[in-house]
Amino acid sequence: MKMIVTGGEGFIGKALTAALKKRGVEVAVIDRRAGIEVADFFRTADLSDIDCVYHLAAQTSVFNTDNEAVMADNINAFMVVCDACRRYNVRLVYASSSTANGCNTTSLYGISKRFDEQYAACYHPGATGVRLHNIYGPDPRQGTLLWHILNDNPVKLVNAGRNVRHFTFISDAVEGFIYAYGSGEKLLNVANPEETSVYDFALEVEKYKPLEIVIDRHKRDFDRKAQTVDESIPTVPLQYVSVAEGIRRCLEHETEK
User: Fold this and answer.
1) How far lies 250's CA from each of 22, 147, 243, 255, in Å?
2) d(C-alpha 169, C-alpha 8), whole Å
3) For the ranges 100-104, 191-195, 219-223, 241-245, which has the lowest average pLDDT?
4) Distance between alpha carbon 2 and the CA centroid of its chain, in Å?
């Protein structure tokens, strides 16, 4: 089988690419970090021998204020990828977000992911969007919660650390994408059913690494106290890694480096 992973140099993309290769899949990585712009590639690419495009390339974070970049990468480039897959009748599995759920949407990032879902439903109905919920894992992406906990001193928890999330381990995200390829669903959740506050997440890390935690009652713009899972959308049936186990794996990885 031949597949393309856009954003294959990113945190989730690298893990997905490695997992596909272990299964004997021939994978081509399209990523601007490798000097290839996604939209430019898909405008002219011949996809006739491709079995699936996993589209993960995107601007990330609800706190991303570069709206022009979000529009260019999350909306305009998505349309190009989706249209190319439709022209060649290629399976498309793309990364959506918990923030595409209307009650979780606080910024253009979530709006862009919701747009992608609607666009795919209209123009490539066979595509599957995977709503990811707060993915974390070893070597976390800079700017994410776990990255800040591991690198900041002291660790400042805004909103008093009361924000509640469905923190989902990277291996479950990868398995979710692989499951999505064989599914007939238009949308799927990949979400650890545990509800964990940011404060409790930090306390799990503190079991392995001394932390100075500072409670900040300030609420950031574009933030929400709780992010919910849209139960009208199927959730990929996995034995999800618990937060306690996921943090253990992350911190053991840190000590092994």
Assistant:
1) 22, 11, 10, 9
2) 18
3) 219-223
4) 22
Token look-up 């993309």 returns 13
Tracing tokens 């669903």 back to the chain, one arrives at 185
Q: Return the pLDDT at 72.
A: 98
Determine the Cα–Cα distance for residues 61 and 110; give it in Å rounded to an integer. 9
Torsion sign (Cα): 132, 55, 254, 245 = positive
65/61 Cα distance (integer angstroms): 9
CA angle 93, 96, 97 (to 5 degrees): 150
Amino acid in the structure at residue 222 = F
More confident residue, 199 or 253: 199
> What confidence score (pLDDT) does residue 255 get?
75
CA distance 240 to 250: 15
Q: Specify whether the CB–CB gap between 44 and 92 falls below 8 A.
A: no
Cα 102–Cα 107–Cα 112 angle in degrees, nearest 5? 75
CA 159 vs CA 72, 104, 156, 223, 224: distances in Å: 31, 17, 10, 9, 9
pLDDT of 256 reads 74
- The dihedral over CA atoms of 207, 209, 210, 216, expressed in degrees to the nearest 10, equals -80
Element housing 168 (H / E): strand 168-169
Report residue 42 as tokens.
């898909």
32: confidence class by pLDDT, cuts 50, 70, 90: very high
| Both tokens assigned to 59 | 């601007």
